[in-house]
Amino acid sequence: MSQASSSEALITMSGVDKWYGDFHALKGVDLEVRRGEKIVLCGPSGSGKSTLIRCINHLETIQKGRIVVDGIALDDSARVVDAVRREVGMVFQSFNLFPHMTVLENCTLAPMRVRKVSPADAKATARKYLEKVRIGEQANKYPAQLSGGQQQRVAIARALCMEPKAMLFDEPTSALDPEMVKEVLDTMIGLAREGMTMVCVTHEMGFARQVADRVVFMADGEILEAAEPETFFKNPQNPRARTFLGEILAHH
Amino acid sequence: MGLPEYLFLLQGLKWTVLLSCIGFVGGGIAGLMVALARTSGLPVLERATSGYIGLFQGTPLLMQLFVVYYGLSLVGLQFEAWQAVAIGFTLNASAFLGDIWRGSIEAVPRGQTEAARALSLGYVSRMRDVVLPQALRISLPATIGFLVQLIKGTSLASIVGFTELARADNIVSNQIFKPLLVFGVVGAMYFALCWPLSLFGSWLERRLAAPTR
Ligand SMILES: Nc1ncnc2c1ncn2[C@@H]1O[C@H](COP(=O)(O)OP(=O)(O)OP(=O)(O)O)[C@@H](O)[C@H]1O
Ligand SMILES: [Mg+2]
């Protein structure tokens, strides 16, 4: 169900190298994400998946290469970094909601502070997205009063309130109890159907099959394979991808 | 013990309260800056404030008051007793509060700052809206504890000839020769200052904790 209407790149990474001290975490990564494209990033633990997506919104700095987001070439200046982060939402494995704020306040903070939206407009937008992730009735609760699945949906709504052009997901369902995984995946599938550009680190292969335009496989800081889900799951070319898929499928 | 003695003690109490307030307000403002500098991620600022905290935590308050009152007058900076004491207390409190708050800021989970960054929030908003409210709650027991210490520590101001509660106690005792009675009254006054503060601290702690339950 590829909806990538235009082939224009929204995110481009070229020749990206990243070191943590002596440790070479990303090795010459090239990745292009077109507008509206959904990418699922997978690979063994420690292969650099989190590092890769965290470089896109500059939560990590890179030592070599170039990252361009929506026409903005990332550098270390606060102005450029903020401009990129305004257009890129992120959802974390551990939700990271602000515990001292209500659900609604979590969702209105950034639009008010960053986009200078009026409180009334910010609330209206927040309610719209909270409805969309089907959690509108909980707007005045605190995060700790919600289940994990509800918290993660709030985190998705909070990111959407900034009206981003792309969304990054770092294992959004792996901290959840099994019975809550589906509600979060369904929310993400809904988002994908509306044409959001998405880069998702996840091991939910059913999700990958259903929404991904491309599955990207990483190991040891390198992208070893990138293919459409059908091709990738039926006939992975790289031996490490084959081993990895075998392990994943054995677990599920 | 007659009315004049009580009034004299109350006069001393007034200065104790005033000194504590100056120490806490001055120390609070300066301490916040110390804590922010200490967690700024800028090596120069972090090392400088680390040295500052070490210096004031590592030497007695008494000595710090001496240095401000007598020491600085040697280099031509002459302060009145109350000014010297106010400066000394502010410096000392800023180091202790700075360190308490540094610890609390660092105790706020990393993911909170990361989420704030990912939402494009700038430093000021990250601190004011996300990190400091959570750090405040974490720091509350230690902060109130320090404030109580600070009130009791004001008795050291008598050393530079400042008549606060402890010194007033001394003077009255020597005049009416009933040290135990005077001690009792003064002790009750200190207690009346510190106890409500501790209660307020526990109340505030409960209130701030409520939403996350
Ligand atoms: N802050 C850091 N300092 C040093 N090394 C790090 C840091 N963050 C990650 N690494 C290392 O970089 C490598 C890649 O980490 P990353 O978190 O990107 O892996 P991942 O593919 O997301 O793994 P997982 O599936 O376990 O989340 C790992 O070997 C990790 O130990
Ligand atoms: Mg990871």
Could you give the topology of this structure?
The complex is a heterodimer of chains A (252) and B (213).
Chain A: E1 9-20, E2 23-34, E3 38-42, H1 49-56, E4 64-69, E5 72-73, H2 78-87, E6 88-91, H3 103-114, H4 119-132, H5 148-160, E7 166-170, H6 178-193, E8 197-201, H7 205-211, E9 214-219, E10 222-227, H8 229-234, H9 239-251
Parallel strand pairs in A: 3-8, 3-9, 6-7, 7-8
Antiparallel strand pairs in A: 1-2, 1-4, 4-5, 9-10
Chain B: H1 3-38, H2 43-58, H3 61-74, H4 81-107, H5 110-118, H6 123-153, H7 165-176, H8 179-209
The complex binds adenosine-5'-triphosphate (ATP) and magnesium ion.
Magnesium ion is lined by residues 49-50, 170-171 of chain A.
Protein architecture, described:
The complex is a heterodimer of chains A (252) and B (213). By secondary structure, chain A is of the alpha/beta class. In chain A, 39% of the residues lie in helices and 25% in strands. Chain A contains 9 helices and 10 strands. Chain A is globular, with a radius of gyration of 18 Å. In chain A, 49% of the residues are buried. The model of chain B has no long low-confidence stretch (mean pLDDT 89). Chain B is mainly alpha-helical and 213 residues long. Chain B has a single domain (3-212), classed as MetI-like fold, CATH 1.10.3720.10. Chain B contains 8 helices and no strands. At the A-B interface, helix 2, strand 6, helix 3 and helix 5 of A face helix 5 and helix 6 of B.
